[in-house]
């Protein structure tokens, strides 16, 4: 039985990245061979050396919402509304401020929110007066980028930089796929030029969509990790992506997942993908930890994750706990930059 403390490590605050490197693909890249534990230190644009013609690179094209909104009560009081996930015609939200059922908040001249139900987990069901593209346009105008708390804390103030709105978004985020409240951060390292070079090498680039939810910020609170209940997140896999993955698997080529969100999506739908079932969409709630046996994913491009996080458990399942421990030890000793805006790792 794995205990939560098995996935703990110490990290100096000065290794928490508060901004990305420029250009994006000049971040450092630790290459970990999961077969023998060999470690090599490169830069992200060297990823080309580890991809072969016919391999399938799978990216999460979900677009990050500016999910932090500020609402005004009729009394003049302020309530922060943090969008978590869309549930049909209502949204699950986190609220900060004095609130009650039926309260109406003014978010802008066009957008209002009505608080409908308080849930047991501390979130609220909130109904907005706008839906669809009109809702997203209004949020885009007034919302703030939902940077992780540890970045804000390390910066020493609550201010966002002028570049956060673009920095905290992948270059391939699809405007038609809005819905994440945290970036699929492994993908932040790609530039249009690097993606073009990868295509030119004969690598298939395909997309899934998983809208990253609040669960990415929530800590594991149980000592026995098997008792942890992971939050569900909406995901979709197109027919084209399924076909390309099946083709690569049948040809003996590698499936390289960019990020833990992509990894979880592919493994959740693994049995259907292997049967070439098209048009996959569902709430994904797969929790991957050792000794999980991967069915689709061969390699993962990922960032360095928080101690005791489900993300650290996932990469430990892929590479082996001891190999991940050694990789993190080397990354710390060589001053790699950690977390969302930090450096990357390829587990091959």
Number of strands: 17
Q: Spell out the helices and strands N to C.
A: EEEEEEEEEEHHHEHEEHEHHEEHHE
Name the CATH homologous superfamily of the largest domain.
QueA-like
The second-level CATH architecture of the largest domain is 3-Layer(aba) Sandwich
The Cα radius of gyration reads 20 Å
What is the CA-CA span between the terminal residues?
26 Å
Number of domains: 2
Count of runs of 4 or more consecutive helical residues: 9
How is the largest sheet built, in terms of strand order?
2-1-17-16-14-3-12-13-15
Helix content: 10-25%
Anisotropy-based shape: globular
Q: What is the structural class?
A: alpha/beta
Instruction: Provide the residue-averaged pLDDT.
Output: 94
Q: Report the major sheet.
A: 9 strands, mixed
CATH fold-level topology of the largest domain? QueA-like
Beta-strand content estimate: 25-35%
GO biological process, one term: tRNA queuosine(34) biosynthetic process
EC number: 2.4.99.17
Function: Transfers and isomerizes the ribose moiety from AdoMet to the 7-aminomethyl group of 7-deazaguanine (preQ1-tRNA) to give epoxyqueuosine (oQ-tRNA).
Pathway: tRNA modification; tRNA-queuosine biosynthesis
């Amino acid at each position: 039985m794995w205990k939560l403390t098995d996935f703990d490590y110490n990290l100096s605050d000065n290794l928490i990245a508060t901004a990305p490197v420029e250009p994006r693909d000049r971040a450092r890249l630790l290459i970990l061979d999961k077969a023998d534990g060999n470690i090599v230190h490169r830069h992200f644009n060297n990823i080309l050396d580890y991809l072969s013609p016919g391999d399938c690179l799978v990216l999460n094209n979900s677009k990050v919402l500016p999910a932090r909104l500020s609402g005004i009560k009729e009394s003049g009081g302020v309530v922060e509304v943090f969008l978590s996930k869309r549930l049909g015609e209502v949204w699950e939200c986190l609220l900060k401020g004095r609130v009650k059922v039926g309260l109406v908040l003014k978010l802008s001249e066009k957008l209002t929110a009505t608080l409908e139900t308080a849930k047991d987990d501390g979130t609220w069901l909130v109904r907005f007066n706008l839906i669809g593209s009109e809702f997203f346009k209004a949020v885009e105008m007034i919302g703030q980028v939902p940077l992780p708390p540890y970045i804000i804390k390390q910066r020493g103030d609550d201010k966002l930089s002028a570049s956060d709105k673009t920095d905290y978004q992948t270059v391939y985020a699809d405007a038609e796929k809005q819905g994440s409240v945290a970036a699929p951060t492994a993908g932040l390292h790609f530039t249009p030029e690097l993606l073009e070079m990868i295509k030119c090498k004969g690598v298939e680039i395909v997309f899934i969509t998983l809208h990253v939810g609040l669960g990415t910020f929530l800590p594991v609170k149980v000592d026995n990790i098997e008792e942890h209940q992971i939050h569900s997140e909406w995901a979709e896999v197109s027919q084209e992506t399924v076909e390309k993955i099946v083709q690569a698997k049948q040809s003996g080529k590698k499936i390289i997942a960019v990020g833990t969100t992509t990894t979880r999506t592919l493994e959740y739908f693994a049995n259907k993908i292997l049967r070439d079932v098209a048009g996959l969409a569902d709430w994904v709630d797969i929790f991957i930890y050792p000794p999980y046996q991967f069915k689709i994913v061969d390699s993962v491009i990922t960032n360095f994750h928080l101690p005791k996080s489900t993300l650290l458990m996932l990469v430990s399942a892929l590479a082996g706990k001891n190999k991940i421990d050694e990789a993190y030890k080397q990354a710390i000793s060589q001053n790699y930059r950690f977390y969302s805006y930090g450096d990357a790792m390829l587990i091959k």
